[in-house]
Every structure is written in structure tokens, then in C-alpha cells.
Amino acid sequence: MIRLALRVLLIVLLAAGSAQPQTPARRLATIDAVKQFPGFYHLQNVLIRGELADAAPRLLLRADEHDVRVMLEDGVATRSGPVEVRGLLIDVGRLEPGDPRVGSYAEGRDADRWPRPGEELIVRASGVVQVAAAPSTPSVRAIALEPWKFDGQRVTVVGNFRGRNLFGDLPGAPGKSKYDFVLRGAEGAVWVTNLRPKGNGFDLDVNRRVDSDRWLEVTGTIVRDNGLVTIDATKLALAKAPQVTEAPAESAAPAAPLEPVHIVFSSPTDGETDVTPNGSIRIQFSRGLSQPSLEGQIRVSYLGAPRPDAGAPPSSLAFTVSYDAGSRAIQIKMSQPLDPFATVRVELLDGIKGFDGGPVAPWSLTFSVGG
To answer: Please, which residues bridge with residue 282 across strands?
Structure first.
């Protein structure tokens, strides 16, 4: 009990310290990752490794058979050979035509030919640094930046336990098991799969931030899949926080607010009639959710039902909720069949979050039950 209390106190103190203004860390990424998850990286400070290529009138950063357009800010020079490019990742289709952040991209382009979200990405580079050959000893940073060099290899790395992406370090989840967790180094992060975070002297909960003060040594095989990098673990052990870590992140511009999460599909649809009383309700989102944030943030009620107090919201009907991370959808199952011919409202209240902390705006769905 004393040990648990000390750990809780440590987390509280860390949280209090993080409330002070800080320079946000940049996100280490690959070109493949930013193309697979453009909404996650949009308007985020990124660090990407590759080689610059002049494909006039464009300047491209290339790595692992992928490329992304680069626009150099004033005073930033291009360099040959392997480089690390840091800057702001822009998904042009998520901005309005004429937005000054896209620079010369908009010149001569009609608004009706503006790209769709995810179709055209740009890195506004604030720095380009030449790098040496990949280190012989793998680290979380090296794997995050150049995973193709370690693909299929057995590695051992040390990192900070971050639960089931509780801090939004990565843009998606591998969905291998309920014990998948994120391991973060001084910079960069990877998913760890195949083993529960439990062993000699530790049993960590992937859904609790209180366990994020622990460091683990992970041994396993590097696997890449659709922009995500995972370690298929075969061995876990407690480790000490490194005294000398990798180079800290350089200063970066303040991070933009996180993109909101949108509802992309529902069944029933809003205004639908003759809905079966025994059916379930399914709602799909544009990005994955933080599952704990669903607790107490969903209400299902009958329109016109008596309210317990004047002005109070209607009492919620009894139901259960399940979340499928693979399809980014929740399924609501009513504990009892809905009343025939009743009008039902489903509400998502303020407080539901995406896995990266992005907000889900309050939303409601109304439908009518059949006979």
C-alpha cells in the first residue's frame, strides 16, 4: 500500500509539473506512417529521416520506397545523403484554399481542384540535418525513424511503459490483443504485442496512467504493418530509467490543437423509422477512441419521457457498450427491447476522446421504433 501511494504521488507531481508551459515534443515518424495516418500528423511537428531529391519543381524526401513533398523555410538549406528533416506536417486537403501555411503550393491552383484530405502532404521544413549511418545497437528512436532497417530482426530495447497508447504517442493500434501497449524512448515510440506486461516484480495495467512510471526491457521481433511498427515480444523485464538518454527534442513551434474525431456512420441513421426493438445501435468514428473515456458519456432515452426533476435530462435506459478498436466503432445493446412505436434519442456527451486526445463533439441520434 505504501509503495502504491508513493507511485500515485509521483504521477500527481509529474502531472502538476506538466501543467506548466512547455515546448511540445516533436513526433518521430516515417513517410509511410504520415501517409497512412494523415489526420493524426496534420499540423504536428514531425521528424522524418530519408534523402532529399530534387524533382523540379518539387523537393521530395524519400525513404523506403515512399516520398513526401518538402518546402524549405527561409534560411534552411538542402543537403545530400541521409538527413533528418524536422518541420510542420500539413495535410493540404484539411486546409482551405489560400491558407498561407501551404505557401507556394496554392499558386495557380483553382479552388475546385483542391486536393481531398490525405491526398497531398507537405512538410514545411524548419531544419535539415545530415545524419551518420544507422546505429549498430537498436533503440526505440532508431526503430521509430528507420523501421525497415530492423524489419524481421530480433532486438532488445529499453523504454517507458505508456499503456494502451494512453498519451497519444502513436496514430493507431495493431489490435493484436487486449494487452498491446506502447513503449516510448527519449524520442519515438513503438507498439509491443504478444506478451502481457507482467513478470518478475511487475504487473502493469495497460489502461492506467499510474503505471507509466515504469521502464521495461523488451526483447522481440520487429514487425511492420500499414505504417505501424511493433515489437512481437518474447521477453519482458523491469529496467531502470536511463541516466543518459538519447538527445532531447529540439525546440519546436507550439503544437496545433488536436483534430476532433467525427462520426462517420450510424445504424440506425438519424430520423430512421420502423427500427427493430431488439436491434443494437452502432456508431463508427473517424479515428480510434480512448475506451475509458466512454464511461458515463452515453445516454439512451425516450423522447417525451417524464424527467425526475424540472429541467433535468431524461433518465437513461439500461444498456451495455462494447468498443471495437479495429473498426473504430461502438455497439450499444439495450438491456430490454425498446417500446414499440417509441421515439428514441442516443446522445454522446461531452468528454469522449480519441486515442490521441482529440475531442468528440457532443452528438445525438433520433429514430423511431417499429411495431
So the answer is: 267, 331
